[in-house]
Amino acid sequence: MRKFLIALSLLAAPLSLQAQEQIASAPAGLLRALDKTSGHTVDLEVTTGQAVSLGTLSIRMSDCRYPAGNPAGNAYAALQISEQGNENPIFSGWMIASAPALNALEHQRYDVWVMRCTTS
């Protein structure tokens, strides 16, 4: 039992350090979208609080965060994605650049994921 507790504490130490990491919010973010029908990808620069259109989708980013001092680091963005003719959002939540499948948009035509935050 003691070995288990020691191993558990060693595993938890890096997690507590990560929890203390400072984050910063960026004024914009870069998203990448894939049109599954045509196979084309497009990069979308989205300003925080603004919406961009992609076909029948409207993508609004409310925040883009990154590790302070490292804008190229692991970004995560709060997105709300709506589709024309549908009053409820088809996606609302955080997307993480390093784990796009963790909380993904499920749409028959488009994939959207976060690439990075932009600071200028």
TrEMBL record:
Protein name: DUF2155 domain-containing protein
Organism of derivation: Sulfitobacter aestuarii
Pfam families the record matches: DUF2155
InterPro entries: DUF2155 (IPR019225)
Entry annotated with the keyword Signal: yes
Signal sequence range: 1-19
Domain of life: Bacteria
Keywords linked to the UniProt accession: Signal
